[in-house]
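Record type: monomer structure entry
Structure origin: computed from sequence
Chain ID: A
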Amino acid sequence: MRNTDKKKENMVLMSMRISAEDKELIEEKARKTGLSTSEFIRRCALGRKLPCYGDTSLLKEYAMQLGKIGSNLNQIAKYLNIGGNYFSIYFELKEAMKELLDLKFKILPALEDVACGRKHRRKRKKESEE
C-alpha cells in the first residue's frame, strides 16, 4: 500500500460554518495558489507553505490572443496549401507575425511575475549607478 493510500484511509470529514463572502474569498485565494480549497485551508491552518504565484489573469488573456493568432495563421496556411497566391495575403501574414512578436514580449514579463509571485521591477540605470 502506498503512503498516500494510508493517508486517505485516515481522512475524516470536518465541517464549519462561514459566511458566503468568506467562502468566496477563500475559494478565490485557493484558485490563485492552484490548490483545492480543502488543501488551501489545511495548509493555512497548519502553517504549511503555500505556493506563491503572481496574477495569472494576464497569462489567460494572452493565451486567448495566441489562440486567435494561431487561428489566423492556420487560415493563411490553408489558403496557401490550396494554391493561393502568397502576394495576395502578404500584408495579413506580416500583421499576424507582428502580433505574435508583440505578444511574445508581453508574455515574458508576465511569466516572470507569475514565477516570482509579484511584480518584477527592473532597476533603472540611475538607481543602479547610485
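Annotation 1: Residues 3-45 form one domain.
Annotation 2: Confidence is low (pLDDT under 50) at residues 119-130.
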